[in-house]
Amino acid sequence: MRQIPVDTSAAVVMVAKPPQPKVKDRRTGEIATDIESGASLMTVEVMFSANDEVEILSVAVPEPGISGELTMGTPVALTGLIARPWENDFGNGKRHGISFRAVAVTSLAAGASKPKAA
Fold first, then answer.
1. 93, CA 20 to 30 Å: which among 68, 82, 109, 117?
2. Alpha-carbon distances, residue 103 vs 44, 62, 89 (angstroms)
3. pTM of the predicted structure, to 2 decimals
């Protein structure tokens, strides 16, 4: 699967919705896990502002990569942010989009702690 690194150096990034467990299967409530570490995945919605454009991105992050208090409006750093194009075939057509994944989401608010060790 193609992965595209995302440069966040010129962007303003703030929490739009605090971290929530990433659900793998809505029918069973199964939580998604990171293939490499086995850690539970969390979803953090962030406001990403760059080049006079603002987007709300849903970013998947392994739970140990969440640090600091991530409440709405908290400025954050996204470490290792990548974009992955995806496409699914369904009986009546195709769906496609871009998913976002980061190694860590770190609060930039005063007194924020460093990411937890993996």
1. 82
2. 12, 7, 29
3. 0.83
